[in-house]
Specification:
This protein is mainly beta and 639 residues long. The protein has six helices and 39 strands. Strand 35 and strand 36 (550-552) form a beta hairpin.
Length: 639
């Protein structure tokens, strides 16, 4: 018995020693924390975003922010990498401006601003500075152009079978022609929406799949002039990998053109946007390779073959065709590259149609034009519109540019993992794996009003490392209950909208063990609220061994159902009057610890059972000691 007593005494001393090491045992054990002592354990940052695209006409667009470059090479084009998800998406106002505060992971220091809408330079790499992201497109374009003001003195070369509109025409090192019009000529917003939607891949399908009738007997390729008129070609955008040269030719209407009977005339030496870059494989140096902006206009001239001169107007009785020298712009010169492509099918070696030209149904003075430079036939390698000076000057009929409604909504999706300790207000092993949930929350925003009208939340309980019976719910803690129009949940039975709360509260389950690895999808219709009022993951919480013992993220208030008498008992040092909740004093090295944490990733590895989180993820300690200023990505680096 004495031997057993001695063993018990030694064990007690050892446990006491461990407790002294990890848990604060001094006289301030339950004294509420002062605000200056608190770290909120938040892995997200608030960033003020100011975007100004500088549009002069009424035209609103949607932009995305990515944590890495969202573009990749696919076939012969640069396309958006659909495997990547933006960290934020938003609409601009009608002048292309956006201002707001967003929430993104705190380890992000730079983003790529992306929009596929014509008129938006994209993508643009931006750095977060002093908690803000600022982008003014006019200033950005100016900063690029400052480096390339000079126009060369006529020593660029071009292919012998091409002709320049004027002997005085030249271009700079990026292919910006000297005869570009001074002012941008951006078409109406409805034209830009239609071009953006039509000349692109839609759910993996292209024009050749969606509209094979447009690729028949050149019905959409050629422009037949029936009344004398001036013409201009206006650049819209390009998704091509190549730096292509674009031009035009004419022939008598009703005849069949051939490469030998037409004269190719240069319009745009390099049909590449100012945002286009290339990366040197050896040095990884990134250089700009384009210069064009949406709205850059070149006035075309008619080549009078008989009189061997250019004329300002295209006469009735001629047809205008189009040509593209694939990979034609190289080091400032026009070269053969991958060869010539014509709008008239029989002029191409494979008889394929390389241009889709579509009339604007609301006027007869705009024709959208999309070029195909190689083999994917999405016709977005260079997009333009033909600006026709006179009404009733081109032959009517033929396919029209499909009308497209402007964007009505935009979504932003937040993703993360919630990890809880279930023995609050007491501290135990701090492995932070007693209850673990993943979430994906999508906010639906009305583009015009900017308000959130619907949220769709997906929650999956992925791990139960605790021995207690734990349930889970969440509260939309920044809105009143009357702002919720409806709640619908698909998933395991037992969920409920809980009554008796000052804010909307949804309970998904009462015992994690019965629903482990099952998905709950919660759709909540809202009466238009501000996005800042419903930032995921809202106020998520577990409740342990009954409904009244709740565990929340640090500084997130308990619900009306919580037992408030538990605060400042055992190891809890909340300061309710100061809005400080669910936190404990800890060993001197770390000082304080949470009972729940929100990790902005779906790939967080479950911490080892009975091993403190900072032993599994060593960067946690410096992150806490620095109050979140260092080691912001600690959760990505497991020991």
């Amino acid at each position: 018995m004495k031997q057993l007593a001695l063993v018990s005494l030694v064990s007690a001393l050892v446990l006491s020693s461990c407790a002294d090491k990890d848990v604060y045992q001094g006289e301030r054990k339950n004294e509420p924390l002062k605000p200056t002592e608190v770290f909120d354990f938040n892995l997200m940052q608030q960033v003020k975003v100011n975007v100004d695209y500088g549009f002069t006409n009424d035209y609103y667009i949607i932009f995305d922010l990515y944590s890495q470059n969202p573009m990749k090479k696919e076939d012969d084009s640069w396309v958006k990498d659909e495997s990547l998800s933006p960290v934020y998406s938003a609409p601009t106002d009608k002048k292309g401006r956006y201002s707001g505060t967003i929430q993104i992971p705190s380890d992000i220091t730079e983003v790529w601003l992306y929009s596929d809408y014509p008129g938006a330079v994209s993508p643009v790499k931006l750095t977060i500075s002093n908690g803000a992201l600022n982008y003014n497109q006019v200033d950005y374009i100016t900063s690029l152009q400052v480096k390339t003001r000079g126009i060369t003195s006529g020593n660029h070369s071009y292919l012998d079978d091409w002709m320049l509109i004027s002997e005085k025409v030249d271009w700079d090192a990026y292919g910006l022609p000297s005869n570009i019009e001074e002012n941008l000529s951006v078409p109406p917003a409805e034209i830009l929406y239609s071009i953006q939607d039509t000349y692109s891949k839609i759910n993996g399908k292209k024009i050749k799949d969606l509209h094979p009738e447009w690729l028949n007997n050149n019905t959409t390729s050629e422009i037949k002039i029936i009344k004398d008129t001036e013409l201009s070609l206006v650049f819209i955008s390009s998704g091509a990998n190549f730096n292509n040269t674009v031009g035009y030719f004419t022939y008598p209407t009703g005849t069949v053109p051939t490469p030998a009977t037409i004269q190719k005339i240069l319009a745009f030496p390099n049909a590449s946007p100012i945002s286009k870059t290339s990366t040197d494989k050896e040095t990884q140096v990134v250089t700009r390779t384009g210069a064009l902006l949406c709205g850059h206009e070149v006035k075309l001239k008619y080549w009078n073959q008989a009189e061997q001169k250019f004329e300002n107007k295209f006469p009735a009785g001629v047809t205008v065709g189009w040509c593209l020298q694939a990979m034609g712009f190289n080091s400032g010169n026009i070269v053969n590259g991958m060869g010539i492509r014509y709008s008239y099918s029989s002029m191409n070696s494979d008889n394929s149609q390389r241009v889709v030209a579509l009339r604007d149904g609301s006027t007869d003075q705009i024709v959208a034009i999309g070029f195909e430079d190689n083999t994917d036939f999405d016709y977005c390698d260079a997009t333009f519109y033909l600006k026709i000076a006179e009404s009733n000057a081109v032959e009517p009929g033929g396919p029209e540019l499909p009308p497209v409604n402007p964007p009505s909504n935009v979504t932003t999706t937040y993703r993360g993992t919630l990890a809880y300790e279930d023995q609050w207000p007491a501290q135990k092993d701090y492995d932070m794996n007693d209850v673990m949930m993943t979430y994906q929350s999508t906010l639906y925003r009305n583009v015009v009003s900017g308000k959130i009208y619907k949220i769709v939340d997906e929650f999956i309980p992925i791990h139960n490392g605790g021995t207690y019976t734990s349930g889970f719910g969440y509260q939309l803690h920044n809105i009143e209950t009357n702002r919720v129009r409806s709640v619908d949940v698909s998933g395991p039975a037992g969920w409920r909208v809980e009554e008796g709360h000052s804010h909307p509260t949804v309970i998904l389950f009462d015992d994690i063990r019965s629903v482990l690895n099952q998905k709950f999808t919660v759709t909540i219709e809202l009466a238009d609220v501000e996005s800042s009022q419903v930032t995921p993951p809202y106020n998520p919480f577990i409740f342990v061994n009954g409904r009244s013992t709740e565990v929340h993220l640090v500084n997130y208030a308990p619900t009306n159902k919580a037992d408030m008498s538990l605060f400042n008992t055992k190891d809890d040092v909340s300061n309710i009057d100061a809005g400080i909740y669910y936190i404990a004093r800890y060993q001197e090295e770390i000082n304080i610890m949470p009972f729940a944490i929100n990790l902005p990733t779906l790939d967080f590895e479950v911490p080892t059972e009975y091993v403190k989180i900072y032993d599994t993820y060593p960067g946690f300690i410096d992150w806490v000691k620095s109050k979140g200023t260092t080691n912001k990505d600690w959760y990505k680096k497991k020991k």
